[in-house]
Write a structure and sequence with these properties.
The chain is mainly α and 370 residues long. The chain has 17 helices and no strands. It is flat and about 85 Å long. It comes from Thamnophis sirtalis.
Length: 370
C-alpha cells in the first residue's frame, strides 16, 4: 500500500506540473512577504528606541528586497496599495523621511516624502508633512501645492487650510488667499489669522474689498469682524512677512562681475563694434562650462573717455603722413574726380507757342470748310 501510494503521488505530480509550480511560487511569495515584514518590524522597533542609524540601515535593506523591488504602482489611485510590497514601500519611505527630518536633514526628508506620495497621493497627512517641510526649505510654490492637494483629499483639514492662507499671502496671490479666507471664516467666524490677513490685503489693494464683497456676503458671514489684539496681529503678519523676506533673499541674484569683450574695439566705427560683439558672443557660447549668462552687462569703462582712448591708440600704432618735397622735380598732381553729368528723365513736351499755332491753324481750316 505504501509503495502504491508513493507511485500514485509521483504520477500525480507528473500529471500536474503547472499546479506544482504555482504552489512553489505561492510558497516563495509568502516567504518573501514574511521576510520583508519581519525586517520592517525590526526597523520600526529600532526607530522607536531612537536608534536612527541602525533603523535607517534596516529600512534601506528592506527597500532592496525582491518583494519591494518588484512592487510598482499601477497609476490608478482607486486601486490603492493592495500589493503588500507597495504598502511596505510606502511606509518605509515615510519612516525614512521622518528619520531624516528628526536629524534636520530636510532635503533628504523631502526626497523620501515625494517618493512616498508617488505611491499614494490620497493621504492628507502626507501632503501636510510635505507642505511643512517645504516651508522649512522656503519652497513656497511646493508648499502651496502640497496644502492644496491636502485640502483636495480632505476639505476640512484645518492645518492645511491655515498654512495655505499664510503661503498665498506671502506669494501675493491675494485673490486666491481671500477665497480660502472666506472658506475658513465659514468654519470659524472668529478665525483671527483670516481676519488679520483679509484686512491687510484690503489695505494693500483697496479695490479687492469691493470685488470680494459678494463672495463674503454669499458665505453668510457676520458684518462686524471680531476684534484681534495688536500683539496677535503683529505675530500673524510677521510670520508671513518673514517668509516673504526669506524667499526674496533666496531669489536675489549674486553680484557677479560684468563681461569683458573677447576682442577689443580697434576703431570707433559700427563695423569694429559689431566685430567685437560677434567675437564676444562666439567666445561665450563655445567656452568651457559653466558658461556665463548672455544677459549680463559688458564692461566698457575703458572706452568711456574717447579722447584718451584715441590718444592711447595713436601712441601704440602711429600713422605717418607723407608730404611732397618742395624741391621735387615731379610734384604730385592731384587727381580730380570725373564730373557726373545729369540727364533729366522728364519727357520733352511741346512748347506753348507750338500748341497755340496748331490751334489757330485748326480754327482757320474750320472756317474755310464752313
Amino acid at each position: 500500500m505504501i509503495r502504491i501510494a508513493a507511485l500514485n503521488a509521483s504520477s500525480a505530480v507528473e500529471d500536474d506540473p503547472e499546479g506544482t509550480l504555482k504552489s512553489h511560487k505561492s510558497q516563495t511569495k509568502e516567504a518573501q512577504e514574511a521576510e520583508a515584514f519581519a525586517l520592517y518590524h525590526q526597523a520600526l522597533d529600532l526607530q522607536k528606541h531612537d536608534l536612527f542609524e541602525e533603523s535607517a540601515k534596516a529600512y534601506h535593506e528592506l527597500l532592496e528586497t525582491h518583494l519591494l523591488r518588484e512592487a510598482v504602482a499601477s497609476g490608478d489611485e482607486r486601486e490603492g496599495l493592495k500589493h503588500p510590497g507597495l504598502m511596505l514601500k510606502y511606509s518605509t519611505y515615510k519612516n525614512l523621511a521622518q528619520l531624516a527630518a528628526q536629524r534636520d536633514n530636510i532635503e533628504t526628508a523631502m526626497e523620501f516624502y515625494l517618493e512616498a506620495v508617488l505611491l499614494d497621493s490620497t493621504d492628507v497627512n502626507l501632503w501636510y508633512k510635505i507642505g511643512h517641510v517645504a516651508l522649512r526649505l522656503t519652497r513656497l510654490p511646493l508648499a502651496r501645492h502640497a496644502f492644496e492637494e491636502g485640502l483636495a483629499c480632505n476639505p476640512d483639514h484645518w492645518p492645511c487650510l491655515d498654512n495655505l492662507i499664510t503661503v498665498l499671502y506671502t506669494l501675493s496671490d491675494y485673490t486666491t488667499c481671500l477665497y480660502f479666507i472666506c472658506k475658513a471664516l465659514e468654519k470659524d467666524n472668529s478665525y483671527s489669522k483670516g481676519l488679520v490677513i483679509k484686512e491687510k490685503i484690503f489695505e494693500e489693494q483697496p479695490c479687492l474689498r469691493k470685488d470680494s464683497l459678494r463672495m463674503f456676503l454669499k458665505g453668510d458671514l457676520p458684518v462686524c469682524d471680531v476684534p484681534v489684539s495688536a500683539s496677535e496681529t503683529q505675530t500673524i503678519l510677521e510670520e508671513a512677512l518673514e517668509l516673504r523676506r526669506k524667499r526674496q533673499a533666496l531669489m536675489a541674484r549674486k553680484n557677479e562681475p560684468d563681461l569683458k569683450l573677447a576682442q577689443p574695439i580697434s576703431l570707433f566705427t559700427w563695423k569694429s563694434l559689431g566685430e567685437s560683439l560677434m567675437a564676444t558672443y562666439l567666445h561665450l557660447t563655445t567656452c568651457e562650462p559653466p558658461r556665463p549668462s548672455l544677459g549680463k552687462q559688458i564692461d566698457l569703462l575703458e572706452y568711456q573717455d574717447l579722447d584718451q582712448h584715441l590718444e592711447s591708440q595713436a601712441n601704440v600704432a602711429p600713422v605717418s603722413v607723407l608730404h611732397p618735397s618742395p624741391v621735387s622735380s615731379n610734384p604730385l598732381v592731384p587727381l580730380t574726380e570725373p564730373l557726373l553729368t545729369y540727364t533729366p528723365l522728364t519727357p520733352n513736351f511741346p512748347s506753348l507757342t507750338v500748341l497755340e499755332s496748331v490751334n489757330s491753324a485748326g480754327e482757320e481750316d474750320a472756317r474755310g470748310i464752313t
